[in-house]
Amino acid sequence: MSLKKIASDFKARYIDERRLPEAARQQLQRDRAGLPEHDAGPLAVAEAGIEWLKRSQDKSACQDGGSARDFSLLRGWASSYPETSGYIVPTLIDFAARTNDQPLADRAQRMLDWLVSIQFPEGGFQGGKVDASERVPVTFNTGQILLGLAAGVQRFGEAYRRPMVLAGSWLRDSLDPDGCWRKHATPFASPGEKAYETHVSWGLFEAARIEPGLGFAEAGLKQVRWAIGKQMDNGWFASNSLSSPAEPHTHTIGYVLRGVIEAYRFAGEADLLAAAALTADALLEVIEDDGRLPGKLDRNWRPTVDWVCLTGNVQIAACWLLLFGITGKAAYLDAARRANRYVRRTVYLSGNPDVVGGVRGSFPVDGDYGRFEYLNWAAKFCVDSQLLEASADVPPRGPGDER
Questions:
Q1: Confidence of residue 13 (pLDDT cuts 50, 70, 90)
Q2: Could you tell me the CATH number of the domain that includes residue 291?
C-alpha cells in the first residue's frame, strides 16, 4: 500500500475521539489494542449470534417484525432492513430446526409476513432500509429476499409460494439478454454492472428447486456465466464492488464466490466449479496465519486498506467450507477455520446485550465498512459459517439434490 493511500485512508477515518460516545471510544481503544486470544468456539458464537439477531428484531426502530439493519455505537438501533431480513430468515429457520426451537421459527415467520406485506405488486422489493426516502424495486434486494421466501415455502407452506413466484418471475423477466441485470439497480450504490449479483441467482436456484419449469434456473445460470466473464485469469472479478470497482470489499468477493458455488451445486457443471476454485485458491494466498483477510483487495489481490471487513471474512470462510465438502481439499478447511476464528475472537459473549453476539462491520471498529456498527448481515453470515465449521457433514449439492 502506498504512502499516499495510507495518508488518504487516515484522513478519511480520522475522528476526534473526545467527541465519541463513551461506548464507541472504549470499543475503539480495545480494538486498537488487538484481538483477544480467547476463542469460544463455533457453536457458542453461533448461539450468541442467534440471540443477537433476535434482539435486532425486537429492537428495530420500526417494530414491524423485520431485523434492524444495525446497532450503532453512535446512534443506537436502526430501522428494519428488508434485504438482509430476507436472508436472515433461512438462518433462523435452520437454527430452529437444529435446536427444535419453535419460538425461533415463529420469529422467522413473522419476519417473512412483514416482507410479504411490503412486496411491490409486480414482485420486486425495495432497496435500503424500510423507511428509505426512495422506495423503488431493486434487483439485488429482491434476490436476497427470494432466499427467505423459498425457505419459507419449504418450512411454512403455501402462503409464501405466490410471493416467491412473483419475485422470481420479476427477476427472470428483468434480466438482460446477455445475462446481466441492469434495469433495477440500487440507488444506494454507484451505477454500473455488478458481478456479485450471482448472489441474486442463488435465490433463483432455490426458487427453481420448489417451482421448476418457470425459467428461474436458466436465468440464474445465464447471469452466473455472465459474471464469470468478468473473472480475470487470477480469479479476481471486475465490476464487483458497491462503489469502488478497483478495490472490492471481501464482502462482495464473498457474494460473487458464493453465487458461483451455488450455481455448481445446482447444475453440477465442471466449469462452474473450476471458476469457483480459481477465486477460492487465490484467496488462500491472501489469508494471513491468524485468519486475517484485508478488507479490500485490488486486481492483483493486494490489500488496499489496513482494516478487516469481518463480514467478508466469514462469507469467504463459508465458501471454503462448502468447497472442502465438494472437493475434500484440506487447504480450504484450514483457511476457513482460521478466518472464522479471527472473527470469533471479536465477538463478545457477555456484557452489553446490544453487542453480545453481534459482529462489527470492521476491525478495528473505525474501519470504513459499517463504521462503529454491528451489522445484522455480519451476524447472519457469522452464524452460518460457524455452523458449517461445526458440522462434520458439509455435503455437496448436485443436479436435482434436495435440502
A1: low
A2: 1.50.10.10
